[in-house]
Write a structure and sequence with these properties.
19 helices; about 35% helix; about 15% strand; globular; Rossmann fold; alpha/beta
Length: about 575
């Protein structure tokens, strides 16, 4: 009887711990008269950016005497933005959110008793690792590197130098970190949405939604199968996250992109969701990106070639930088080539479209970052014609050593018209912008024309051709030439990896944290999806290729995939 009572008490303690009740939590401290909102703002800056309340860097030491500056070595760098910890190599950084710190920490030790008979039992012993922190013991851990049990923390954990006010601000922030259940999450369900803008064709819309519908169907079937005896053992080994009811609504955006923000806010107010899964648009993702940043909503791998380029924004994961990335790649490749005695003169011809502007922006920024300024950009309006005569005129006027043409369907006719010219400079074009026309570049020019290729070459992609069919189940009646179904497959694959790893920590930042820590993924389209803390563009490479000779030319790689 006593043993049963003891186990029951242990179970109650464990349940309270997992549910996040603070058994030893003290009231939030007041810091120098600051109101709660200001304490949260200052605490967040201290945790994420390593800046004290007065804006100066938080300083400390690691391994006894190595000085560190927390603007580089911030709390979030190791413990993750969500505060739920991370693992890098052999170093595990434990959770530091309030529900973890201000509850006891337990180690579960399984003792499996095997018998000759079919009966097997598992006895779980609860071993306390440390008691709950208090404000005083947490301050000692931060200042002196000693946990609530009096044991020394890892030597890589900094011993910080801060006064009482800053300590109170940080502790108050940690108490609230990853504590509120976000919208779209209940004990039994997870609500998501995806986005489709009205410029998307019915075929592309269907290519994305078919796979997402399959995700929801599999979720419902899995919940049913879990109850069957033949599946019970398998599902015991999996996390419970996927066994909540998953629903994905479609938010359709219409009209001018300037109105999208208001439409998104209306959808979100009516139906709050945990995250956005994918999405598709042929226009700039900027309004949707900004909505997600403001409302702190994760958006996972939308299908867009016009993503927002930012080094600091957090809430949207993109497959790549899109057209901008092709421009970057061209600039890095050319910068690494030997120059002629007279130096390199770049002429950039840019069609004034979102695609052309993105390509030119990537090239210009990267070219100048590499210390080069010798370039001229000519922008063509929608009305201006790009043909052989206009190209020859520009070449005569600027005398470039390399001409870059960021335009679409008019490039091939223009190249065909100048193919017989002699003494033409080297050229660069975009395979994504030119589309299938790129395979018809005249033979006389193929040795001169470099092509940016953000995807695997066709022969290498053959091994991944059937991946998207796993989720579309033959629902698509047209070939997926725009890579919509395949990119949706990759999004769902990565989403499920993240969903498995968040365990029961259903916080938005946790989902983004764990995706940032998953290993490289080899999926359709892009050579590799790679991740890292705070990285928001998974495909970090692009090929430079040329066409070989013949009626059925192949793409010949002139660079490795990663060239920057």
């Amino acid at each position: 009887m006593m043993r049963q009572l003891t186990l029951m008490l242990h179970g109650i303690i464990i349940l309270l711990t997992l549910c996040g009740f603070a058994l030893a939590e003290e009231s939030s401290p007041k810091a120098g008269g600051d109101d709660a909102a200001e304490i949260q703002r200052l605490g967040q800056r201290m945790y994420r950016d390593g800046l004290l309340a007065d804006g100066t860097p938080l300083l400390g030491k690691i391994k006894g005497d190595v000085s560190i500056d927390s603007t580089i070595f911030s709390c979030a760098n190791c413990h993750a933005r969500s505060g739920l910890g991370s693992v890098e190599g052999q170093i595990a950084s434990p959770p530091v959110n309030g529900a973890s710190l201000f509850n006891p920490s337990y180690l579960f030790k399984d003792q499996i008793k095997n018998s000759i008979s079919k009966n097997r039992g598992v006895v779980r012993n609860v071993v306390p690792l440390r008691p709950a922190y208090t404000d005083a013991t947490l301050a000692e851990a931060i200042l002196g590197g000693v946990d609530s049990n009096g044991r020394a923390l890892s030597p890589v954990m900094p011993r910080y130098d801060m006064d009482d006010r800053n300590m109170q601000i940080l502790i108050s922030y940690l108490k609230d970190l990853s504590s509120a259940v976000p919208p779209g999450v209940t004990d039994t369900s997870l609500k998501f949405a995806t986005i489709v803008t009205e410029d998307v064709s019915p075929a592309d819309r269907r290519a994305m939604l078919a796979s997402i519908e399959t995700l929801v169907t599999i979720n419902q079937q899995t919940k049913t199968q879990r109850k069957l005896p033949q599946f019970a053992k398998m599902f015991r080994m999996l996390d419970n996250a996927f066994f909540r009811d998953i629903s994905v609504s479609t938010w359709e955006l219409k009209g001018d992109p300037a109105t999208w923000r208001a439409q998104l806010e209306a959808y979100y107010q009516k139906e709050p969701v945990f995250a956005l899964l994918g999405g598709i648009s042929n226009q700039s993702w900027q309004p949707i990106h900004d909505f997600c940043e403001t409302n702190k909503i994760p958006c996972l791998f939308p299908i867009t070639d016009l993503p927002v380029i930012s080094n600091s924004d957090w809430y949207t994961f993109y497959a790549s930088k899109g057209y901008y990335q092709e421009g970057e790649t061209a600039a890095r490749f050319l910068a690494g080539q030997e120059t002629e005695a007279g130096g390199r003169k770049i002429l950039q011809i840019v069609r004034s479209t979102p695609q052309g502007k993105a390509l030119a922006a990537g090239f210009t920024a990267t070219w100048r970052d590499d210390g080069h300024n010798e370039m001229k950009t000519v922008t063509l309006t929608a009305e201006q014609k790009l043909d052989g005569e206009s190209v020859k005129e520009l070449l005569h006027q600027h005398q470039p050593t390399t001409v870059i043409i960021w335009s679409g369907e008019d490039v091939l006719p223009a190249l065909t018209e100048i193919a017989a010219e002699t003494d033409l400079p080297g050229m660069v074009v975009s395979s994504r912008y030119m589309g299938s026309d790129v395979m018809s570049i005249p033979e006389a020019l193929r040795s001169k024309v470099l092509i940016t290729l953000p995807f695997r070459p066709p022969e290498a992609e053959a091994g991944f051709a059937g991946y998207a069919d796993i989720l579309s189940f033959g629902k698509l009646k047209q070939p997926d030439t725009k890579r919509v179904a395949s990119r949706t497959f990759s999004m769902i694959h990565i989403f499920l990896l993240g969903l498995k790893e968040i365990k029961q920590n259903f916080y938005r930042d946790t989902l983004l944290d764990v995706i940032g820590m998953i290993p490289d993924q080899y999926l359709p389209d892009f050579v590799r999806y790679s991740f890292g803390p705070g990285q928001r563009y998974a495909s970090k490479g692009c090929f430079i290729v040329q066409l070989d000779q013949g009626e059925a030319p192949r793409l010949i790689k002139k660079s490795d995939w990663v060239v920057y």
